[in-house]
UniProtKB/TrEMBL annotation:
Residues annotated as signal peptide: 1-22
UniProt superkingdom: Bacteria
Organism per entry: Dryocola boscaweniae
GO molecular function per UniProt: fimbrial usher porin activity
Pfam family of the protein (one): Usher
Protein name: Fimbrial biogenesis usher protein
């Protein structure tokens, strides 16, 4: 049996197609056709034994890598053994190449077949081919040889009752042992001060265990002061508990948001994992929106820790790629404008209504110390437990409790699927609290959530929510404060600094929370663009002040031109910042300005002109114009240059570039105005240590794929911008989807003349946090056409050829010509044209060194 690459299979089709055409002659019987070798050559001895083609079997049996589909659902890409099709009709042999896959009972189980419904299958041992279409009435199998796709159709009644998209746990890959480091470094140097921020996320993988640490270093200096600090944001150990469909976390983490608000803790958590279930049995992630007046630095905090920091251009922005570990709990957003002004607002994150399918139980257990980056809070020990149960007729019952020395709360709620009217949930929480002044309180909080998508109208109520709390209701986060009232400052050590410290947070427990409204609505207008409104408002007992943040916008386009208008309003209790901003943004492609069609290959057509204008409630106006676009063959270098004017700081300008390279991402920026000059830079990437060495990569995700193709350097990975194999043939594909099939494909067009990949597609199913390996068999060597003779005659047409050292295979064409790839400069070819040693010979060959520089080398050899 031979294993053929896709390239070799394609090469073998041409001569075999000629044979098939020659075979289309009157049959000598109904059962089979006669193939006369004389049609290929007058000398019958110069043609190999082709008797296997007389029955319509156009391809040799053996092992082929194929895409396997069951009932139009992709299952895997794997190597399968194929045997000759018995009693196949003419139409089937042409389609399948006369081949039938050899599927044993293990494969039938993997396909989801209910084995107990077919007792006769028990007689087949592992590895024995099962006649599927005979053993399972109604089953069908078709093999599209040209596309290397195997379609399997099984009656629905024969399958286990598994949801669409279900992948059995025995196919989940825990990954390989590895050490991982993810880094992100940003720096800023201006006329008045310097600042640096380094984020490190490191980890170790061994079997199902994941050890992770997340820390950050920051440094600021200027005007006679400096501050230098390292903060350990989190350290935890995690693993999947497959039988429970759960995740276990020990260390620093956050609680869930299903029933209670998210809290940081140091302890242990065991919770149901939605990602272990198929998509059809279970999405929402926080998107941070805002409007920047200038080239601003954005900082996002959660529980007092900085979880995201970057730079944004003037105008409306949306941050949708936050680390999944920070996708719960309120997000505190700070925009540091270039002129020194600050914008502060809070983006609430609450999950959509808590509906579960009938019979589904979802639990979450936590025990540990309360943990916050806010120095104003203590660390009380607490326990938390929640349970969500799916009931018949679209109902969901849920509840939970939080217990601490100075705090007790219990929640109970009900959700309902309203069909065309969307989904709602309502719950009530009762709490007893003892605050920092030892005063005792008790109260209730009522929460209402609603979600609906009106697809036919283009409307999406992603989340509408309202919470009402009585005067005596407090949360565990409130009880953790050491004082009834206080401020959290950006810097604590500022004795050498004359200016007042920047207020980061304010709390006043005498102002207990009263009502909270949040909204996120989008409306599509078809060809006329789209509208959106999002925001929140929190009111308090004891004061008329509130925390408010709203943003609304309209966006549309015309003939490649895009434009948007947006407005935002924010204010916070105890903080002086109260800002209203209106902005307009316009982008025009150069292809439109030049009056010709868009061409992806021309850098000028990938460029665009921009215009941005904004005005805030203080009367500060900003206007900027600029150009931007992408460069390089892979379009992985983004650039922008702007020039503008501000009523507060006069003229201004900027130049920025970001390169998404193979071993990381690099960004450079320069900003200036009337009063200052500043440079900023960003560098991020990943380092992976594994059994085969160390591999550098772009920034890692939580779950990643290590690509192993030894010797195949500089090969691109499909659908991954900038990702290529290094000089050893290794690469990392970040951000794999857990518990789902991930298709990894190497771009054969990016290979050099001396690299061949036997099968360029692989499929993996990683577990949470895993580094899984996708291995490819690369053949590095010469591509050559070798003309082989035996005596003074060419070796028989159609003979099978194999190079002994590399294992490269092919078939003899006209006049003894053989095309082979991945050949060493010296080797020996085994040529077979029939059964027995009398029907084979060996042809030693030697290629000159110049062959390494040629696309296809030409040579001759003698078969002995």
């Amino acid at each position: 049996m031979m294993k053929k690459s896709r390239t070799q299979q394609a090469l073998s089709v041409a001569p075999l197609s000629a044979m098939a055409l020659a075979a289309l002659f009157p049959t000598i019987s109904v059962a089979e056709s006669y193939f006369n070798p004389a049609f290929l050559s007058e000398d019958v001895a110069s043609v190999a034994d082709l008797s296997r083609f007389e029955k319509g079997s156009h391809q040799a049996p053996g092992e082929y890598r194929v895409d396997i589909w069951r009932n139009d659902e992709f299952i895997a890409t794997e190597d399968l053994q194929f045997v000759e099709t018995a009693n196949a009709g003419p139409g089937e042999t042409v389609k399948s190449g006369g081949l039938t896959p050899c599927l044993d009972v293990a494969w039938l189980t993997r396909l989801g077949l209910n084995m107990l419904a077919y007792p006769e299958l028990a007689k087949y041992k592992a590895g024995v081919c099962v006649p599927v279409t005979e053993a399972i009435p109604g089953a069908e199998m078709t093999f599209d040889f040209a596309r290397l796709r195997l379609n399997i159709s099984l009656p629905q009644a024969s399958l286990l009752n598994s949801a669409r998209g279900y992948i059995p746990p025995d196919q989940w890959d825990e990954g390989i042992p590895a050490a991982l480091v993810n880094y992100s470094f940003t720096g800023n140097r201006s006329t008045n001060n310097d600042s640096y921020y380094l984020s490190l996320q490191s980890g170790l993988n061994y079997g199902p265990w994941r050890l992770r640490n997340n820390g950050a270093w920051s440094y600021t200096s200027g005007d006679g002061y400096s501050a230098n600090a390292w903060k350990n944001i989190s350290t935890y150990l995690q693993r999947s508990i497959v039988p429970l469909r759960s995740e276990l976390v020990m260390g620093d983490s956050n609680t869930g948001t299903d029933v209670f608000d998210s809290l940081g803790f140091r302890g242990a958590r065991l919770y149901s994992s939605d990602s272990m279930y198929p998509d059809s049995l279970q999405g929402y992630a926080p998107t941070v929106r805002g409007i920047a007046r200038t080239n601003a630095k954005i900082i996002i905090r959660q529980n007092g820790f900085v979880i995201y920091q970057s730079y944004v251009s003037p105008g409306a922005f949306a941050i949708s790629d936050l680390n999944p570990t920070s996708s719960s709990g309120d997000l505190e957003v700070t925009l540091e404008e270039k002129d020194g002004s600050l914008q502060k607002y809070t983006v609430p994150y609450s999950t959509v209504p808590l509906l579960q399918r009938e019979g589904r139980l979802k639990y979450d257990l936590v025990a540990g110390d309360f943990r916050s980056g806010n120095s104003q809070q203590d660390t009380p020990f607490f326990t938390q437990g929640t349970l969500i149960a799916g009931l018949p007729e679209g109902y969901t019952l849920y509840g939970g409790t939080q217990l601490a020395e100075r705090y007790t709360s219990a929640a109970l709620g009900l959700g309902k699927n309203l069909g065309e009217w969307g989904a709602i949930s309502m719950d009530v929480t009762h709490a007893r609290s003892k605050l920092a002044d030892d005063s005792e309180h008790q109260g209730q909080s009522l929460r209402f959530l609603y979600a609906k998508s009106l697809s036919s109208y283009g409307t999406n109520f992603q989340l509408l929510g309202y919470r009402y709390s009585t005067r005596g209701f407090y949360t565990l986060d409130d009880v953790a404060y050491k004082n009834m009232e206080g401020y959290e400052y950006k810097r604590e050590e500022n004795e050498s600094q004359n200016e007042a410290p920047v207020i980061q947070n304010y709390h006043n427990l005498r102002y207990s929370k009263r009502g909270r409204f949040q909204v996120n609505i989008s409306q599509s207008l078809g060809d006329y663009g789209s509208l959106y409104v999002s925001g929140s408002q929190q009111t308090y007992w004891g004061t008329d002040e509130d925390n408010t943040w709203y943003q609304a916008g309209y966006a549309s386009g015309w003939r490649g031109i895009s434009y948007s208008v947006s407005a935002s309003w924010s204010k916070s209790v105890g903080l002086a910042s109260n800002d209203r901003i209106v902005a307009f943004n316009l982008s025009v492609p150069f292809s439109t300005l030049l009056g010709h069609g868009y061409s992806r290959d021309k850098a000028i057509d990938r460029a665009y002109a921009t215009f941005a204008a904004s005005r805030n409630s203080d009367g500060k106006n900003t206007v900027q114009t600029g150009v931007g676009g992408t460069l390089l063959e892979d379009r992985n270098l983004n650039y922008s240059v702007t020039q503008g004017h501000s009523s507060s700081s006069g003229y201004s300008g900027s130049a920025n570039a970001n390169w998404q390279a193979t071993y990381g991402t690099l960004g450079l920026g320069y900003n200036y105005d009337r009063d200052r000059r500043e440079f900023n830079w960003q560098a991020s990437g990943g380092v992976v240590g594994h059994a085969d060495g160390v591999t550098l990569s772009q920034p890692l995700g939580d779950t990643n794929v290590l690509i192993k193709a030894p010797g195949a350097s500089g090969v691109s990975v499909e659908n991954q911008t900038g990702v290529k194999t290094d000089w050893r043939g290794y690469a990392v594909m970040p951000y794999a989807t857990v518990y789902r099939y991930n298709r990894i494909a190497l771009d054969t067009n990016s290979m050099d003349n001396h690299t061949d990949i036997e099968n360029n597609v692989s499929s993996v199913v990683p577990t949470q946090g895993a580094l899984v390996r996708a291995a490819f068999n690369a053949r590095i060597g010469v591509r050559a056409i070798i003309t082989v003779k035996r005596g003074n005659r060419a070796v028989p047409f159609g003979s099978v050829v194999r190079e002994e050292a590399s294992g490269a295979t092919s078939m003899v064409g006209d006049d003894g010509q053989i095309y082979l790839s991945g050949l060493p400069l010296k080797g020996k070819l085994l040529i077979q044209w029939g059964e027995g040693k009398g029907s084979q010979c060996f042809a030693p060959y030697a290629l000159p060194e110049e062959s390494l520089k040629q696309a296809v080398a030409m040579a001759t050899a003698t078969c002995l």
